[in-house]
Amino acid sequence: MQCCQNPQCQNPFNPDSNRFCQNCGSNQLSELFRHRYRVLKVLGAGGFGKTYLAEDVERLDDPCVIKQFAPQFTGTSTLQKATELFKQEARQLYELGENHAQIPRLIAYFEHGKSLYLVQEFIAGEDLLEELKQNPFNEEQIREILAELLPVLDFIHSRNVIHRDIKPENIIRRFPQQGLKRGDLVLIDFGGAKQITQTSLARPGTGIYTIGYAPTEQMAGRAIPASDLYGLGATCVRLLTQCLPEFDQDGQLEDLVYDATNAEWLWRERLQKKGITISHELGQILDKLLQHLPRNRYESAQEVIQDLNSIIQPNQPSSTLTVKGQGGLVNISGLGLKSFAYDLVKVGLRNNITSRQRRQAEYLPEDLGNGVILEMVFIPGGESWMGSSQIEEGRYNHESPLHRVTLSPFLIAKTPITQAQWKAVAAIPEVNQFLNPDPSRFKGANRPVENVSWHDAIEFCARLSQFTGRKYRLPSEAEWEYACRAGTSTPFHFGETIIPELANYNANYTYAYGVKGIYRQETTPVGSFQVANAFGLYDMHGLVLEWCADFWHENYNGAPSDGRVWEFGGDDTHRVLRGGSWVSYPRSCRSAYRRKSTPDGRVDVYGVRVVCSLPDEL
């Protein structure tokens, strides 16, 4: 198939045999743009040119987006100015995309014929408008959107860039792996050629905006950083209310949540009609984002982030709930759960922390005596992917096939079992075998216990159950991975890569776009990095490998879909370990990583993290 490169052509695709375009008659036909890019389809068109989906044949047919700019200006000086502005935009996009994972990378810039071209990374995913058509957004999702995008706006504003067109269609949730539905949000369409028009060249500012998302100063051609914040606020309230600006047959704007006459947002009234309530704290943030006058809004994205972080965000409802377990409905209000706060961070492809949130989870404290407390975090039940896709970097074949699992709620230790906790339980009378109270190579009461076998871990659970009256056990593989991922689908729960500032592993090696760092060559106290996953669990990547209850299986064919321990079939002479260790390469610390060992194996990288089921035992 050939593509016509005439910017005015309405249907550019032609058979290979054509010498002239069957639509416009042009002889500008080519199978490849610049002998490199194979056009697949037109994504959009406008007065500035076209946007194509293409393949980069020099990069193994990697998908990309080509933005064509075909200026129709008269006069040499005007054309030169337009070309220079377009080049400036290209340099700007290159700097942004190379330094932030949530902005598409610029792959190439070139001139061809009378047109200019940008080639950008193709973001495979679904924009928030498409998500809205499927399901309404709730408060937790709005907080997540703010937490993910505010650092992006802070980044571009710090480089004197204003996006100018924040709206649901320009926010894509990346498909991080084949078959997975959710991933990081990516901010697309920074204007580019759209802002270079005959009129914009003759005056300052720009006329780029979308009705219903832009404040008055931007519509008057004076966009400022606070204009982007307004657009983000408008996006959030429209996702909450499901009310988008529309034009009727006469071209009149219909908007159920914004009164243009009085410059007043009516989103709260709309939510009340729907019977939807949100927290007072989030409401205040949205109201301030949407103030009519810039001086009454937030001055910077950092100010919004500070207010957002001041809201303690629970990862599940109050412990007075009745939850559904395998044995039926279970009331957990009598468990005596307590709350704790923790920091949740996300890491971009280029090793930068792109967001930080203050959140809250609930846990059951087990008093083991002598001031030693075991904190068991409540994990809400749900559905998740297990395993890795064919495109995940560093994967192993025994992590296949990628499959869905549905789990009941359970409790799991906040950190790997410490040496102090191990010693306390080792003092409880024997159930089946002797337990060495001090087996670890690297000594420290708050360091993880290591050098323990699977049989040792089983005995630890048996003694703990006897002491507490609850049934403690090792996690199934499915429970461990579900707890580790905490709703994520990226290789690590904090993002696409791992950095030594957040985990203890062999940082002489890197993963994806990661960089080398300190290799500590020993264990560290649990919780040293002061960041947890979305469930409030620490040290899920690296530090020590953690025993699971399952027999070893070479793949997931026939694996239980309900999270149960897989004790049939497979190799009953080996058990499963998860999570990586202080000596592991980064690829061996991924959420999907698994390895095997004999149940009597004792190594200074083998540790343990216990779980407790909710039904009946509690």
TrEMBL record:
It holds the Pfam family Pkinase. SUPFAM superfamilies: C-type lectin-like, Protein kinase-like (PK-like). The keyword Transferase applies. SMART domains: S_TKc. ATP binds at K67. PROSITE patterns: PROTEIN_KINASE_ATP, PROTEIN_KINASE_DOM. GO terms for molecular function: ATP binding; formylglycine-generating oxidase activity; protein serine/threonine kinase activity. The keyword Nucleotide-binding applies. Residues 37-312 form the Protein kinase domain. InterPro entries: CTDL_fold (IPR016187), Kinase-like_dom_sf (IPR011009), Prot_kinase_dom (IPR000719), Protein_kinase_ATP_BS (IPR017441), Sulfatase_Mod_Factor_Kinase (IPR051043), SUMF_dom (IPR005532), SUMF_sf (IPR042095). Keywords: ATP-binding, Kinase, Nucleotide-binding, Serine/threonine-protein kinase, Transferase. NCBIfam families: 4Cys_prefix_kin. This is Serine/threonine protein kinase. It comes from Crinalium epipsammum PCC 9333.
